[in-house]
Design a protein that fits this description.
The structure holds 2 protein chains of 2 kinds. Chain A is mainly β. Chain A contains no helices and 11 strands. The chains are: A mainly beta, B mainly beta. At the A-B interface, strand 4, strand 5, strand 9 and strand 10 of A face strand 5, strand 9 and strand 10 of B.
Chain lengths: ~110, ~110
């Protein structure tokens, strides 16, 4: 039973560039949430996708956008990268309407913006 | 503003002792609460969740919830050096979105 997978593992970009991160949810899950975790902080919710639509969004600018595909996998896109975008980006999968809303995280993508 | 507060630590305990980790939350509408363990450089790993007032036990871990006081805790019995990590408390904010605290670093010394 495959868990949550993310790619790439690490990424280095320069300011102003654009980046795309990818996530495949755990088998049987249909909902993908993205979080940003800066060093020394807890994860911050970016947005959530279910049935290929953005369902919830946290307090992030529209430079952050996403997509969900029919196979439930998801992408996170960040445009016009800033130094402050350097962080660990986490994808979490869950089952929509699941009783306890348990979310399981992938290994993350470490993004460094120079 | 929905907030989850945790003491950043570090909390230092000797091997074999009980470690007690605490968090408070601001949103009375939160219905379920989660404890994640995060080793340095790794992603958070779900330890357990709780949604009813009282205690919930799972092996060496016990989660406690007091909704009246908006307080959640995690007890780790017989602490081991391998338990040394940052423990994140999270509250369900609706539609499967989680609000996390900053985490408490736990150090278990042999």
């Amino acid at each position: 039973d495959a868990g949550v997978t993310q790619s790439p593992t690490h990424l280095i970009k320069t300011r102003g560039q654009q980046v795309t991160l990818r996530c495949s949810p755990k088998s049987g899950h249909d909902t993908v949430s993205w979080y940003q975790q800066a060093l020394g902080q807890g994860p911050q919710f970016i947005f959530q996708y279910y049935e290929e639509e953005e369902r919830q969004r946290g307090n992030f600018p529209d430079r952050f956008s996403g997509h969900q595909f029919p196979n439930y996998s998801s992408e996170l896109n960040v445009n016009a990268l800033l130094l402050g975008d350097s962080a660990l980006y986490l994808c979490a999968s869950s089952l929509w309407g699941g009783r306890n809303n348990e979310q399981f995280f992938g290994p993350g993508t470490r993004l460094t913006v120079l | 503003q929905k907030e989850v507060e945790q003491n950043s630590g570090p909390l230092s305990v000797p091997e074999g002792a009980i470690a007690s980790l605490n968090c408070t939350y601001s949103d009375r509408g939160s219905q379920s609460f989660f404890w994640y363990r995060q080793y340095s450089g790794k992603s958070p790993e779900l330890i357990m969740f709780i949604y009813s007032n009282g205690d919930k036990e799972d092996g060496r871990f016990t989660a406690q919830l007091n909704k009246a006081s908006q307080y959640v805790s995690l007890l780790i019995r017989d602490s081991q050096p391998s338990d040394s990590a940052t423990y994140l408390c999270a509250a369900n904010s609706g539609y499967s979105t989680l609000t996390f605290g900053k985490g408490t670093m736990l150090l278990v010394s042999p």
